[in-house]
């Protein structure tokens, strides 16, 4: 729970990379008041943090607190829950702290650590900076033995059964808590159990939620220990601090049996690209909500499908559609930047990126005209919803202006001889403080000079050693280089040989499959069928190049969804004998097959042999005859409808003529 406390920290003496333990200046911002602490070591700061449990710890450089990523992770693990580490100068591309302060109307002495710490705290309260995230939104819980079973004796089995039984009992307790947590919040988890004699050796649970949300705490007793840890990221992630609520997003949706979802931030950063088969509407909404609040829900087709409109209404977002059909080639070109695994991801990416491109110029004008201390995402949200840029800026400024209550300035001191002693005392205190700072700086300069001299001596020693190595090993290095060139050439040739062998094996396997199909064809047991993985232009072209598409070929569409009249025309032009499907095909494509007199057969039993297949000729013939009968009925029905339409038109003209 947030309590409005922000810690600003700046290094005052030493360095996190030096041997001497560094000291820090700390500014605590609470209820608009700022309290300063000087020359504080890190272990005392941690005690203060656990006491106050602040919302943010603001610094201008995170590596003032830790020497490297591993040390930073160790530090973050000691912080209270819900306390975030903020780097106010930005993420990968940082801005100087002095410039940031000037942009937000602040001024400070950059050589005074207390004032720098205060500036960091105030900037964080204004929403400036980025949250430093080193952990995924995944938590691992491990329930295991708290002690070794040892070599054992007469009672070893009884002791093992006791410990393993205790682990099993604790695991069930943890699983019960996670089951209720998943039911109440929707967060999922997986489990991995290692069974042992009389119970469990260990139980591991992976929960798809941040550690502070998971209601399981670490514990240890005589027999069982429970450890709870967040999963570390591969690299540091910087999350913008502005808008600590839900971020605004642009969502692209490709509806269907398999739903494609693409989510972009309003800066064009890809947050999610995925395709999920058999997902419900509620699950789609929950997945989208995890990444923020959609400002725009986009589709790549026109008119907008009802499923996309339903998702838009769930978030009260603005709908975006291209106003016409987007060609497959254009979709590939648009989505290629981020990459995709299938057509559903490609279509959803196309929708999201095309809508972002439509708003990009407006977003650029917002970024140029809006003050930097405002939440730009919220300004863009109001613009998307129909406000002008000036109206949006005015709304956000009135909604989210943060006022920091500062200490009142002292009243002017009147010239009075009775206050002279007090003024002298204050001046002496100020002078003592300045002398102390000067002494600290002189000590620091002396340390730096000493370190500089030591490093120069070390450099001289290393240069001498380097010259000796160069003189004694020149021939050896040259020989090793030639050997390396030879080894590289051998490795390259081995790779080419392995690649050739792999291609040869593939060709042999393909020939073997073709022989199997051919045997069935000769015996009259099967008719060859060519398998196309998906109903797309690329998949059809791939099969055509690999096996060829000839007249009277029988085709099996492994995934018939996603196609249309254009893709259907490729098979019609090839004059295939029939198309076999296992699930429903889009209506527009089915109409094209009817018009092209190509039978589309569903539910026919196909015997697969790798990329090829076979079907019983008798069953195929019966299915085609049945389809032809249906097609004939359809043609007759169309003729009757056409005749009825002509008759109605004729009657209408007769009535107008008689009138």
From TrEMBL:
Positions in coiled-coil regions: 424-517
UniProt xrefs under InterPro entries: DUF460
Keywords, comma-separated and alphabetical: Coiled coil
Protein name: DUF460 domain-containing protein
Lineage: Archaea, Methanobacteriati, Methanobacteriota, Stenosarchaea group, Methanomicrobia
